Amino acid sequence: MIITISGRPGSGKSTVSKLVAKKMNLKHYSTGDFMRLMASNRKLSLLELSKLAETDSSIDEELDERQRSLALNEDDFVIDARLAFYFIPFSFKVFLQVSEEVAANRISGRETLTKQEALEKTRERLNSEHKRYLDLYNVNYEDKKHFNLVINTDDKLPDEIAQIIQDSAKSL
User: Fold this and answer.
1) Contact 7, 95 (CB under 8 A)
2) Which helix (H) or strand (E) holds 4?
3) Pick from 127, 133, 32: which is nearest to 87 by CA?
4) To the nearest whole number, what is the mean pLDDT of the chain?
5) Which CATH superfamily hosts domain 2-152?
6) Pick from 16, 11, 21, 24: which is nearest to 161 by CA?
7) Residue 157: closest CA among 24, 32, 15
8) Which of 30, 95, 162, 168 gives 20 to 30 Å between its CA and that of 156?
């Protein structure tokens, strides 16, 4: 079974996908982790890498190829990535919704940012990503029609969300 988990920054993708993988004894992958590594290697922030990707298609090509390769070479894993549902269309596709306010609180709590800074950086990053994804693939990853399951994470704990995903995936 392959489970793809998408959502906005601060929705809980990373935390929840790790829990789902652990509960279901599956491998876990994260495009966000890979992007952070790419940014670090280039001595850029995640936002700077995202902005660079607007003009340097090799960044998205590298991320996209990683997802395609996983789908071709492995059968059982969980991946959190905004476009994993697109590159792995036969997966069980989950979207985690979150309000801007809750996302900003979560992001500012894990990074050294004020809530307002987190909100502004997240908006800027989302604008950059939306533009790239529409230009490259003509896809809006926030369109719920792409997903088998949509969960609002504002008032749910990660374990609760992971259990909902596990129960829904097992019922297939």
Assistant:
1) yes
2) strand 2-7
3) 133
4) 93
5) P-loop containing nucleotide triphosphate hydrolases (3.40.50.300)
6) 16
7) 15
8) 30
